[in-house]
UniProtKB/TrEMBL annotation:
Residue segments, region Disordered: 1-38
Pfam hit, one: ABC_tran
PANTHER family: ALIPHATIC SULFONATES IMPORT ATP-BINDING PROTEIN SSUB, TAURINE IMPORT ATP-BINDING PROTEIN-RELATED
Protein name as it appears in the record: Sulfonate ABC transporter ATP-binding protein
Segments of skewed composition (Low complexity): 1-27
InterPro entries according to UniProt: AAA+_ATPase (IPR003593), ABC_transporter-like_ATP-bd (IPR003439), ABC_transporter-like_CS (IPR017871), ABC_transporter_ATP-bind (IPR050166), P-loop_NTPase (IPR027417)
Molecular functions (GO terms): ATP binding; ATP hydrolysis activity
Keyword tags: ATP-binding, Cell membrane, Membrane, Nucleotide-binding, Translocase, Transport
Domain ABC transporter: 40-254
Length: 280
C-alpha cells in the first residue's frame, strides 16, 4: 500500500525476505523504527464491494508479541480485514503497516493433497536448512514422526497442527488466524488452544485471531475487539493472568460485555464453567 493521500492498503510482502525479524511496513516505511512502534498499525482502512461499504475506517494497533482476537457477526468484515493485512486484497484504501513476514491459517488447513506433510510445511521456504526447520516445526506441534504422511491420512486436528507448523516455520512477525479451530470438535479445540498459546509464547508474533467463539477469544487473547458496522466498536484488554478460568468473575463480566456488543442475549453468561459462547 502507499502512504500517499489517496491511500491504498499495503500489500505486505507475503514473500518476504528470509532475513530475521525486523518488521517491514507497507508502504516502504519500515515498522520497528522506534521502540514504541506497533507491529501492526492500521489507520482508516476502508473496503467496499459493489458500492457496499464493509469496512468503514478501521483503526487498529497490535504490538509485537500481542495477541488480539477479533469478533463480529457473520458478514461483518472480519475476513476482509484479515485478507487486507495479509496483502491478499489490493482494492482497500487506508493505511496499514505490517511486519515484513506474515503467515495465515484458515479454517481449512489448505494442505496440498499431493505433497507429504513435511513438504507441505517447507513449501516455499528458502532456507538452506528448510527441511530441518520444517521437521522441528512439526515436532513442535506434536506431529513428529508424521513427516511422510499424506494430508488425507491426518485427522482434522492433525491437519490444522500441520497448518500451524507451516505458518510458524516462517517465523512470522504477524500471525493471522481466520477461525482456525472452527471446524474442530470441542476436545480437539481445547488442545489446540493450549498448543497455540504455547507456540505464541515461544515465537512471540503479533497475532490477529478471527473467531466466533467468545470464550476462545477471552481464553487466548491480550485484547478482544468487536467489528460492528464496519468499525471496531469495542477494543478491550483481557485483564486475566496466564491461567484463565471461565468461572472467574473478570472472565464472565467481559464475556457478558462482548455478547452484549454482539447483540446476543446470553442467559448463561454468568453461569461460568462449561458454557461455550458462540454467535453467528
Ligand atoms: N470478493 C467479494 N465480493 C463481494 N462481496 C464480498 C467479497 N468478499 C466479501 N464480501 C462481502 O463482504 C462482507 C464481509 O465479508 P467477510 O467474509 O469479511 O465477513 P466475515 O465477518 O468474515 O463473516 P464470517 O464470520 O461469516 O466469516 C460480506 O457481506 C461478504 O459477502
Ligand atoms: Mg470470515
Amino acid at each position: 500500500m502507499t502512504t500517499a493521500p489517496a491511500t491504498t492498503v499495503p500489500t505486505p510482502t507475503a514473500t518476504a525476505p528470509a532475513a530475521a525479524a525486523p518488521a517491514a511496513t507497507a508502504p516502504q516505511a519500515r515498522a520497528g523504527d522506534g521502540a514504541s512502534q506497533p507491529a501492526v498499525r492500521v489507520r482508516g482502512v476502508r473496503r467496499e464491494f459493489a458500492g457496499r461499504e464493509v469496512l468503514a475506517g478501521i483503526d487498529l494497533d497490535i504490538a509485537a508479541g500481542e495477541f488480539v482476537a477479533l469478533l463480529g457477526r457473520s458478514g461483518s468484515g472480519k475476513s476482509t480485514l484479515l485478507r487486507i493485512l495479509a496483502g491478499l486484497d489490493s482494492d482497500a484504501t487506508g493505511q496499514a503497516t505490517v511486519p515484513e513476514r506474515d503467515a495465515v491459517v484458515f479454517q481449512d488447513p489448505r494442505l496440498l493433497p499431493w505433497a507429504r506433510v513435511l513438504d507441505n510445511v517447507q513449501l516455499g521456504l528458502r532456507h538452506r536448512d528448510a527441511r530441518a526447520r520444517a521437521t522441528a516445526a512439526l515436532a513442535e506441534v506434536g506431529l513428529g514422526g508424521r513427516e511422510r504422511a499424506w494430508p488425507a491420512t491426518l485427522s482434522g486436528g492433525e491437519a490444522q497442527r500441520a497448518a500451524l507448523a507451516r505458518a510458524l516455520v516462517r517465523s512470522p512477525g504477524l500471525l493471522l488466524l481466520d477461525e482456525p479451530f472452527g471446524a474442530l470438535d470441542a476436545l480437539t479445540r481445547i488442545r489446540m488452544h493450549s498448543l497455540l498459546r504455547d507456540l505464541c509464547r515461544r515465537h512471540r508474533p503479533a497475532v490477529l485471531l478471527v473467531t466466533h467463539d467468545v470464550d476462545e477469544a477471552i481464553l487466548l487473547a491480550d485484547r478482544v475487539a468487536v467489528l460492528t458496522d464496519g468499525r471496531l466498536s469495542l477494543d478491550e484488554p483481557v485483564r486475566l493472568g496466564g491461567a484463565r478460568h471461565r468461572a472467574d468473575p473478570t472472565f464472565t463480566a467481559l464475556r457478558a460485555r462482548l455478547l452484549t456488543e454482539l447483540g446476543v442475549v446470553d442467559d448463561e453468561a454468568s453461569e461460568g464453567d462449561g458454557h461455550q459462547a458462540e454467535y453467528c
